[in-house]
Amino acid sequence: MIIVLKRGTTQDQIDAFSQQFIDRGLTVNSWHGTHETVLGLLGDTSVIDIEYVQAQPIVYKVQRVQEPYKMANRKFHPDDTVITLPGGQTIGDGSLTLIAGPCSVETEDQICEVASRVKASGAQFLRGGAFKPRTSPYSFQGLGTTGLDLLKEARAKTGLPIVTEIMSVAHLDLFRDVDIIQVGARNMQNFELLKQLGKMDKPILLKRGLANTLEEFLMSAEYIMSGGNERVILCERGIRTFETFTRNTLDISAVPILKKLSHLPVVIDPSHAAGIPWLVEPLSMAAIAAGADGLIIEVHNNPAKALSDGAQCLTPDQFDALAKKLNTAHQALKAL
């Protein structure tokens, strides 16, 4: 249930009003916007008399929420969520966020060189896999804790916050010093992992599963948010369809749909969606036009010798040229 309060309602009135719902076993989340205050009631709201609530002098309107996701719902939080990191970097504030780096961390020289190059091109975050989920058990699985150490070294040298994927609840302590924790497509419905990430004070970049609906995607975000961590970034990375030309099929419609249904930032991963380097640029342009808050792009200093997903990586020079086009396109669209 959502309760929109009238302008001028004081905090004391809000607290007293909310307490009656808390006393009945409900959780009350409040959102204070520029022009209104919204209370979101979570729990069994069937026990609440909606006419009684509507009759209260401080209440403007009351609405029952039919969607199963509540905290991720834009009705609960009309303004866009902006995620700010300790270093001042932001996602969701209307600027274009670029996250770039290799699929896998391989060596100190590799990750540090790529970090330096993508930062020079305007990337605000460094991505890189330390633990890698692979379809084949014989493929390179990542460097593990050594890879995390190398990412932190690249961060120390460049100042770029790091984004890397967690694979298991058992690895939670290893990720305490990671800036943004990524949940990969294969773990989108690893609910025990999502519950534990809900207890962390870290932004979580949640990737959509390759065969999941948008409602299922938002319900996974809800798992994290219901645990207390509301700093979730949604990532569309392509879904599996009958098409075989591309690695996946980028669901570009997911961007405006997610922005309408939810207040959470939305980024696009064109590299995994396409699996083809020359498609990264047009898909990235389409993502910006659709309203995405950012892009996460794979960049490797020697794609031909990459230990994983080299076929879809851009070179640093290609990323530099692309970043210039993306920023130009983003500014032009903002001016419309």
Automatic annotation (TrEMBL):
It comes from the Bacteria. Residues 84-333 form the DAHP synthetase I/KDSA domain. InterPro entries: Aldolase_TIM (IPR013785), Class-I_DAHP_synthase (IPR052899), DAHP1/KDSA (IPR006218), DAHP_snth_FXD (IPR041071), DAHP_syn_2 (IPR006268). Keywords: Transferase. Residues 1-67 form the DAHP synthase ferredoxin-like domain. GO terms for molecular function: aldehyde-lyase activity; transferase activity. This is 3-deoxy-7-phosphoheptulonate synthase. The gene is aroF. It comes from Solibaculum mannosilyticum. The keyword DNA damage does not apply. One of its GO terms (biological process) is aromatic amino acid family biosynthetic process.
